[in-house]
Amino acid sequence: MQRFTRFACVDWSGAKGSRHPGIALAVCDTGNEAPRLIPPPDRAWSRQGVADWLLAQNDHLLIGFDFSFAPPFMERGSYLPGDDVPTSAKAFWAHVDHVCDDADLGAASFLEQLHRRHFYFGAADGTKSDYLFWRQCELLNKNSSDKASTVYDAIGASQVAKASFAGMRFLHQLRDAVAIWPFDPLPARGKVAVEIYTTIAARAAGVAKGRSKIRDAIGLDLALQALGSKPHKPLNRYTDHATDALITAAWLRKSAENRQFWAPKALNIEIAATEGWTFGVI
Question: What is the pLDDT of residues 176-219, one digit of tens each?
Fold first, then answer.
């Protein structure tokens, strides 16, 4: 019997403000029906709105989020060397949430003010390579596929840094209601959140390297078909956020019973408690 009854993906955003067009939420059931987008309660999703939606679900849901659940720890023995911060992920989430008062679970102030010296914002900060550190799962992924992002790089369009630290505030809200793998062991029942990397799903869907983003109906249906899904219902707009969420939800449905994904060879107890792992990296 399958462990999960529904599968979801959130294409996340760390942008400032309270409403974020960059957030998309897609859901699919078991079987082969196409994933569908869940409309936001307002004109666009807020991070708090996603938290409220997830907390309201009461089934066996597997949901993926495309941000780093924790900063690197193993390489230097600290998330922020020289600063007085916790040494386990859940305590660190609580720290980020406690010191940030940004709107809608944002965390820009964490990077831009509170711990500024740890983050690279541009040439004025000196040599970029001095700021770049990765988690163990990212080192594996970096060596095997696309270039891995790091939460200490705070420039660029993707803004993985702001998205990730905002995501840590989000995880702190969920910690008592949702199992967050691998910081929590996989439970026999209930909701489980995992970190995902949408490019892994795109590759599994047959999207060629160098073309990770799909922006049209035909490309989306071809990707879904490769993941065992029926064609989707037409969308009003084909954005990267929407198609990433839809494809990754279908990939989670196809991948949820893959035992290798739940037991990567390099994942040990210390990594699970501090850095976490990206689902699908083995």
Answer: 999 999 999 999 999 999 999 999 999 999 887 766 688 899 99
Three-state SS for the chain is CCCCCEEEEEECCCCCCCCCCCCEEEEEECCCCCCEECCCCCCCCCHHHHHHHHHHCCCCEEEEECCCCCCCCCCCCCCCCCCCCCCCHHHHHHHHHHHCCCHHHCCHHHHHHHCHHHCECCHHHCCHHHHCCCCHHHHHHHHHCCCCCCCCECCCCCCHHHHHHHHHHHHHHHCCCCEECCCCCCCCCCCEEEECCHHHHHHHCCCCCCCCCCCCHHHHHHHHHHCCCCCCCCCCCCCHHHHHHHHHHHHHHHHCCCHHHHCCCCCCHHHHHHCCCECCCC
| pLDDT tens digits for range 231-244 | 999 998 999 999 99
- Reported pTM: 0.94
